[in-house]
Amino acid sequence: MIRYIYAEDLPLYPGLRASMLRDRATQFHDRLKWEVTVDADGFEQDQYDRLNPLYVIWEEGGVHGGSMRFLPTTGDTMVNDHFAHLAGGAITAPRIWETTRFCVAPDSPNSARVAKLLMMAGAQLGVGFGLTHSIGVFDARMVRIYRQLGWEPDILGTDGTGRDAISAGLWAFDDKTLTRMCAAAGVSRELSQLWFERAFGADIPKAA
Prior knowledge:
With 208 residues, the chain is of the alpha+beta class. 36% of the residues lie in helices and 25% in strands.
């Protein structure tokens, strides 16, 4: 199932938290060789995890199957702090949230579907909160992956070439996209909405 959990509530799910942070270490530190910090417990965390982000997590048997992290651009974000030049300047808008740390568990038996489920949940989050866009920074390999998943961002700017290219992009939120991503993930709109409402209730305030 999809869970939407703020960082302040993540300790209520110790197994889910530990498996997510260890999977992040495997993906970003061990496999992709990013310059990220891994602590003595094998957890990958950074300063943005301390800002009470909203995690979107696919849970399988009580542990992490895949996840991503969201923060409003009205506060500190990775794109504004480190990659504003790719976006043509800082992006600060209440209806645009940043997404980072897109991660699928390395031992997932169906990583392609988990990725689709995460994209679906991201679309549900945007529609549910009344957001217009999500912004993210990604490397060249992700361009092909987003295309395969059926939801490509509008690229704002790119630095570098080939496999070393880094881009910033915007994903637009709307009902049509959510319906398409539900179909791609094999999940009904009703179930997607149910997972969202379990986290936030039926009457959810929209972003101003």
